[in-house]
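Q: What residues go here?
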């Protein structure tokens, strides 16, 4: 079968021009004919601004019908989209756009203003897109050179937390994304009758499913804005009244829905498929969710941004009350191969723990402009290139059991967080002489604690929280700040993280 590219999915869906394509958070909708036409107009405008094959185009705006059209317009030009949290730190956004050398940054008026304040040099590259942009009534037929198909061309740059204090861009090619989309399509049976909830923000890799699997089948995407996405009180009503049939999110919000008293009122819905990924789903909360919504099929999906989903596990209809261990992450997807290796990158015997490593067409080619970092995470074995996830697993009859991470990367609400990035930012605060960050709690319920040493007068927890919000993604802001006279050290002079972890909940915690 000839390999597709992501833009071709909209071409095919537009052959059903009257089918509903997208419903925005404001309730406004577009058909596939309208979505394709708006994508063409966007491509034409961007081409006029010099955007072409291989360029990166920043996206800094809330989710909307318009933003979906912009993504497909960018792809039709052969450029790559670089989505960034419009509600996050403008300094972080500026760092990302400078790092990837974005040709154009598409932003709503509010986000453009915040970005210009943080990085005035980016103003000339920022194009403000209003509600009707590009103008649907503009005269003349859109004109731009449609990019030829190239599976290895960059389609998206998704930035994740970086250990050096700077976010790192995961390069996603058309081949990477299409291999996942085709697997998901065959596995989950999405059809044109499905109503798919888009809960994940576009800078989160779960959105690849929401956008491209849905469009491939000319189904309907229901965009969920930031406020609703975080509201377990109102999401059950949205799911029921919107006729949602497919849901995909991190487990955290599903666990909150399962514990929401209001969810019982709206338990009758059309859900047939519930997918979750990004972190461990606490088994007691999953059991409650199965009781609340017994009809859908449930799947636990696993995979970092660098590979997208590479294993999956069909959740049984009943989870015994005696079970306390989390579900396994299942077996390898058909488009991936998996081995478990030791520290010497040699395969371990079945049942022995090791690092889960992935090969196949969905594995990213590189981090953006970070060849050394890429080399640290990839290796050759059996004549193939493998990505070492850093996740420790062991094989069981039910699939791979996830045992934890070997480094200081944690997951919270589905987002990967490098604790060193938080430390790096705190150490740049003039009010602090030193800082160290640890995580505690069980998988799926992670708490991040920052231990800080003041350089003079102690800043308040509110001031530290505001400082972190200005420089970090929202999900990276520590939960607790604990003040120490000095950080504990090991015999070699390094920060004693084990000692700090033991102090969590013992030292006086200051909450903002």
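A:
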């Amino acid at each position: 079968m000839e390999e597709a590219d992501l833009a071709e999915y909209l071409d095919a869906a537009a052959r059903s021009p009257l089918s509903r394509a997208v419903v925005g958070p404001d309730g406004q909708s577009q058909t596939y004919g309208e979505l394709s036409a708006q994508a063409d107009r966007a491509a034409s405008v961007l081409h006029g601004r010099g955007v072409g094959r291989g360029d990166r185009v920043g996206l800094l705006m809330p989710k909307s019908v318009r933003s979906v059209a912009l993504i497909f317009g960018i792809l039709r030009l052969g450029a790559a989209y670089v989505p960034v949290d419009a509600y996050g730190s403008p300094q972080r956004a500026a760092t990302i756009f400078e790092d990837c050398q974005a040709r154009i940054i598409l932003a709503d008026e509010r986000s453009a203003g915040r970005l210009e304040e943080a990085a005035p040099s980016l103003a000339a590259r920022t194009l403000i897109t209003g509600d009707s942009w590009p103008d649907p009534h503009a005269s003349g037929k859109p004109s731009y050179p449609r990019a030829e198909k190239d599976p290895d061309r960059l389609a998206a740059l998704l930035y994740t937390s970086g250990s050096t204090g700077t976010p790192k861009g995961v390069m996603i090619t058309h081949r990477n994304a299409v291999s996942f989309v085709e697997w998901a399509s065959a596995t989950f049976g999405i059809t044109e009758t499905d109503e798919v909830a888009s809960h994940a923000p576009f800078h989160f890799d779960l959105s690849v499913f929401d956008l491209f699997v849905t469009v491939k089948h000319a189904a309907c995407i229901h965009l969920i804005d930031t406020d609703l996405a975080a509201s377990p009180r109102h999401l059950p009503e949205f799911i029921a009244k919107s006729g949602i049939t497919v849901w995909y999110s991190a487990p955290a919000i599903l666990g909150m829905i399962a514990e929401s008293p209001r969810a019982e009122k709206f338990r009758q819905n059309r859900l047939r498929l519930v997918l979750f990924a990004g972190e461990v789903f606490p088994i007691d909360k999953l059991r409650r969710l199965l009781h609340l919504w017994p009809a859908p099929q449930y799947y636990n999906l696993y995979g970092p941004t660098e590979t997208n989903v590479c294993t999956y596990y069909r959740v049984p209809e009943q989870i015994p009350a005696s079970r306390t261990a989390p579900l396994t992450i299942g077996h390898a997807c058909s488009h991936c191969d998996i081995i478990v290796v030791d520290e010497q990158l040699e395969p371990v015997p079945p049942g022995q723990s090791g690092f889960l490593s992935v090969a196949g067409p969905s594995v990213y080619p590189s981090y953006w402009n970070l060849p050394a970092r890429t080399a640290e995470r990839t290796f050759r074995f059996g004549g193939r290139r493998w990505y070492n996830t850093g996740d420790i697993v062991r094989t069981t009859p039910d699939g791979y059991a996830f045992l934890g991470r070997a480094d200081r990367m944690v997951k919270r609400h589905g987002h990967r967080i490098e604790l060193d990035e938080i430390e790096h930012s705190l150490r740049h605060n003039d009010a602090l002489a030193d800082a160290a960050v640890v995580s505690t709690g069980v998988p799926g319920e992670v708490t991040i604690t920052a231990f800080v040493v003041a350089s003079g007068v102690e800043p308040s927890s509110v001031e530290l929280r505001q400082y972190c919000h200005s420089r970090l993604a929202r999900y990276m802001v520590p939960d607790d700040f604990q003040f120490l006279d000095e950080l504990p050290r090991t015999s070699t002079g390094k920060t004693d993280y084990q000692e700090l972890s033991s102090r969590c909940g013992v030292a006086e915690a200051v909450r903002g």
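A: Context that may help when evaluating the design: The longest strand covers residues 384-396. Residues 506-512 have pLDDT under 50 and may be disordered.
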